[in-house]
Design brief:
The chain has helices at 44-52, 98-103, 111-124, 140-152, 170-187, 198-204, 222-227, 232-237, and strands spanning 6-15, 18-28, 33-37, 59-64, 67-71, 74-75, 83-86, 158-162, 191-195, 207-212, 215-221, 242-248, 253-256, 259-262, 272-277, 282-284, 291-299, 303-309, 315-321, 331-336, 342-345. It has two domains: 6-232, P-loop containing nucleotide triphosphate hydrolases (Rossmann fold), CATH 3.40.50; 240-340, OB fold (Dihydrolipoamide Acetyltransferase, E2P) (Beta Barrel). Helix 5 (170-187) packs parallel to helix 6. The protein is built from eight helices and 21 strands. The longest helix has 18 residues, at 170-187. By secondary structure, the protein is α+β, with helices and mostly antiparallel strands. The strands form four sheets. A six-stranded mixed β-sheet has the order 7-8-9-3-10-11, with helices on both faces. It has a five-stranded antiparallel β-sheet with strand order 2-1-4-5-6, covered by helices on one side. Strands 14-13-12-15-21 form a five-stranded antiparallel β-sheet. It binds adenosine-5'-triphosphate. Adenosine-5'-triphosphate binds at residues 15, 20, 38, 40-46, 196. Residues 6-238 form the ABC transporter domain. One of its GO terms (cellular component) is ATP-binding cassette (ABC) transporter complex. One of its GO terms (molecular function) is ABC-type ferric iron transporter activity.
Length: 355
């Protein structure tokens, strides 16, 4: 099997006494787009800077295409790593035209080679007509694409992007995230980017790493992260949903106030558990004995997103068809449709998870 383009093995880094990246291990294969996702201060940028070679390591190692580029006693300089970077503020040279910005990293090529590569990446990002423009003559989204073209032009082994959409307005962000994914994929590049925005991560990434307080809690495909979260924290952080308390019995059944679920695994201890219910797992069913009161409803066009409360006080999030015309205070019948439920043993010593 091919070696991963990027491998981080047990990487740890600290500022003074404080460890901000803890024992982090992940691998990114060729042509994959990975994303580190987590709240502010969880160590995403520090991890990216470690990969780029701007930060030393306390422990562990980083390899690019099977060659070690960082270990605690040695760092390959950033410019020798074959890594391209797109920064949050794009870092374009204001006094250089678009083509000269892109050509800056191609000085090792002949004049002709440079021209041809600049033309190639400008076409890729849809800015062939703007090659003579200066950065201030372009919109934020166009500057973003120039920065991407400049980073891709030297054909790096790996592309790193730090919050690449944070300077753009929200509607542009969503569109550009998809566009950037398409550009990276059609160029056959491997990329790692960081964001605190889930929607962005879901739009662009093949694999997402959820970080929390310097730890990588799960590194997985987008679908598995949503459907098979590794722990209650990831379950709560990714997407919407509720952890509903239940009791597991030795036959693999989980008893909850919303009915009986089977996770197919014998729970030998028969102890308390939490079952993850995503909004789409709950549906309207007037014939059901389970009734819930609508606390809040939010019309989302095709869907109606509701916050519900059962008679026991358990709150639930549910996604009903947008044609439902319900309002707060109304009581509705609900049922659940769960294939294989996601179930976590309930640690009674820790506070309950909230979303
Ligand atoms: N040069 C530094 N010296 C000391 N502490 C630092 C330094 N750089 C970052 N930190 C601290 O390390 C922790 C991780 O920072 P980092 O920038 O990696 O987080 P982040 O997840 O990228 O956050 P954000 O989304 O806000 O950029 C933070 O608590 C930050 O304050």
């Amino acid at each position: 099997m091919d070696k991963p383009v990027l491998a981080l093995e047990h990487v740890t880094q600290a500022y003074g006494e404080r460890r901000v990246v803890k024992d982090l291990t992940l691998a990114l294969d060729k042509d994959q787009i990975g994303c580190l996702l987590g709240p502010s201060g969880c160590g995403k940028t520090t991890t990216l800077r470690i990969v780029a070679g701007f930060e030393p390591l306390l422990a562990g190692r980083v390899s690019v295409n099977g060659t070690v580029v960082s270990r605690p006693d040695w760092l390959l300089p950033p410019e020798k790593r074959a890594i391209g970077m797109v920064f949050q503020d794009y870092a374009l040279f204001p006094h250089l035209s678009v083509q000269d910005n892109i050509g800056f990293g191609l000085l090792h090529l002949s004049r002709r080679g440079r021209r041809s590569r600049i033309g190639e990446v400008l076409e890729l990002v849809g800015l062939s007509e703007s090659r003579q423009c200066f950065p201030h003559e372009l919109s934020g989204g166009q500057q973003q694409r120039v920065a991407l073209a400049r980073a891709l032009a030297p054909r790096p082994a790996l592309l790193l992007m730090d919050e690449p959409f944070s300077n753009l307005d929200v509607t542009l962000r969503d569109r550009l995230a998809l566009e950037v994914r398409q550009i990276i994929k059609s160029y056959g590049a491997t990329a790692l980017f960081v964001t605190h925005n889930q929607q962005e991560a879901f739009a662009i990434a093949d694999r997402i790493g959820v970080m929390d307080a310097g730890e990588l809690r799960q590194w997985d495909s987008v679908v598995d992260l949503y459907r098979k979260p590794a722990d209650p924290q990831v379950a709560c952080f990714i997407g919407e949903g509720t952890l509903v308390p239940g009791r597991a019995t030795a036959d693999g059944a989980i008893h909850t106030e919303l009915g009986l679920f089977f996770d197919g695994q014998a729970q030998t201890d028969g102890g308390p558990v939490q079952v993850l219910l995503r909004p789409e797992d709950i549906y309207h069913d007037e014939s059901s004995e389970i009734k819930a009161r609508i606390i809040q409803s939010q019309f989302r066009g095709a869907n109606m997103f509701c916050l519900l409360e059962t008679p026991s006080g358990q709150q639930l999030q549910a996604l009903f068809p947008g044609t439902c015309e319900w309002s707060a205070g109304q009581s509705v019948g609900i049922s659940t449709k769960l294939g294989k439920p996601v179930c976590f043993p309930l640690d009674l010593s820790s506070p309950p998870s909230s979303m």
